[in-house]
């Protein structure tokens, strides 16, 4: 099956984004039964969602997993929902701001992620990696690309599993800052995301067989 895995470029004060690092690491591996397509999205409210939709058109994926950083999270956070709201705490990398705006005016308030989130949560933890199910991807770029993706798939009536996973900060990001935040090593993140992808691949295979 074709799986599109995306990360984000660095943003804010950081020169690294764990999601980009995890995508790069998994690109170098073979995951059984998975043809991996990847993209690194700009942290830009115009170009970010457009880059994701272009990658979806190019990969014709059977599943889409978007990754991003949520620096204060203590575990791999599997998002359950994306909301129709832009409310940026900091400007994006192009200097754009947003306060209390809808992503798509008149569209549904929210979409549920369609990944097998509970099975992914169990598999990540079984791989020895701390995980949580999360009810909010925030109101910044990560939530925006997830909403735009789920809205686009709904419009096209394309029923493929799609959703978002937030990652904590990397130790190297926190080591250079004055503020201490929880961290997770790249190796541990890769282990967790690989386990999550394995579950999605099995779910897609079962759906096809059935
Ligand atoms: N995290 C941000 C956007 C890019 C990223 O990696 C977010 O949580 O919205």
Q: Main traits of this protein?
A:
210 residues, alpha/beta, Aminopeptidase, six-stranded mixed β-sheet, two-stranded antiparallel ribbon, 6 helices, globular
Would you mind describing this structure in some detail?
The chain is of the alpha/beta class and 210 residues long. It has a single domain (2-209), classed as Aminopeptidase (3-Layer(aba) Sandwich). Helices cover 37% and strands 20% of the residues. It is built from six helices and eight strands; from the N terminus they run βαβαββββαβαβαα. A six-stranded mixed sheet has the order 2-1-3-8-4-7, sandwiched between helices. The mean pLDDT is 97. Pyroglutamic acid binds next to strand 3 and helix 4. Pyroglutamic acid binds at residues 8, 11, 17, 19, 43, 68-70, 138, 140-142.
């Amino acid at each position: 099956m074709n799986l599109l895995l995306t990360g984000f470029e660095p943003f804010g004060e950081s020169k690294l984004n764990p999601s980009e690092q995890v995508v790069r690491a998994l690109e170098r591996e073979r995951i059984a039964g998975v043809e991996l397509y990847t993209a690194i999205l700009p942290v830009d409210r115009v170009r970010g969602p457009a880059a994701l939709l272009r990658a979806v058109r190019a990969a014709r994926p059977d599943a889409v997993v978007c990754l991003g950083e949520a620096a204060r999270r203590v575990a791999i956070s599997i998002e359950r929902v994306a909301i129709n709201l832009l409310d940026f705490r900091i400007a994006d990398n192009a200097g754009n701001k947003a306060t209390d705006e809808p992503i798509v005016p008149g569209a549904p308030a929210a979409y549920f992620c369609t990944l097998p989130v509970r099975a992914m949560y169990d598999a990540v933890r079984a791989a020895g990696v701390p995980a949580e199910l999360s009810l909010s991807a925030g109101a910044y770029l990560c939530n925006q690309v997830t909403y735009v993706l789920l809205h686009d798939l709904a419009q096209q009536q394309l029923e493929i599993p799609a959703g978002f996973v937030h990652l904590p900060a990397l130790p190297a990001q926190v080591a250079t800052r004055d503020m201490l935040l929880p961290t997770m090593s790249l190796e541990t993140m890769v282990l967790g995301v690989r386990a999550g992808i394995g579950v999605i691949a099995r779910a897609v295979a079962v759906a096809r067989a059935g």
